[in-house]
Write a structure and sequence with these properties.
With 193 residues, this protein is of the alpha+beta class. It contains 2 helices and 10 strands; from the N terminus they run H-E-E-E-E-E-E-E-E-E-E-H. Strand 1 and strand 2 form a beta hairpin. The two termini are 17 Å apart.
Amino acid sequence: MRSFLHRVTGALALVAAALAPAPAWAEAYDFGSLIQGDGAPLTASFATLSATVVGDDVLFTLDAYGLDQFSGAEPWIGAMSVDGLKTGAVSDVNGDANVTMGKGDGPDGSFEFKFDFSDTTGKLLDNESVSWTWVGGAGHFDNFAIHVKGIEYGETSNAWYDAALAVPEPNSYALMLAGLGVIGVMARRRRQR
């Protein structure tokens, strides 16, 4: 009886895992390589974007940190430009800023559209974050750039920084290897039966 219950429980877990909406992929991006903004730091680490594709949607979380390394009274993140197709809509906005889709701009106007984080009531400041869903955005983007405003470097009051894929922490690799080990053990047990 115990073996039967064990098999039924295992089968139910496999069915639940198969039916769960698993992300196609998830990636993290760091912002910090200057694209445009004379006098602004050439490199700076001040924001991380996590992007998770689930079905046709992209779930974003943008964390701002280290904006105090910029000269200026109150540096803030005004927008994230997207190199891709402006399609879909924004939903499920949570956090310290509003998120809307705007017309294309970015460094030299070369990005197709942007997610704007500022409105009349707020902006994305240091140690704040915002998350949102880009409904229908999966597969419609290639690159991102962040617009930092409120900085002071001579005539420069804003700058654009490019995104780069974040390098995973060593503990992320350890967690991935542990997960692969569990999958291997499960497959071996299944073959032995």
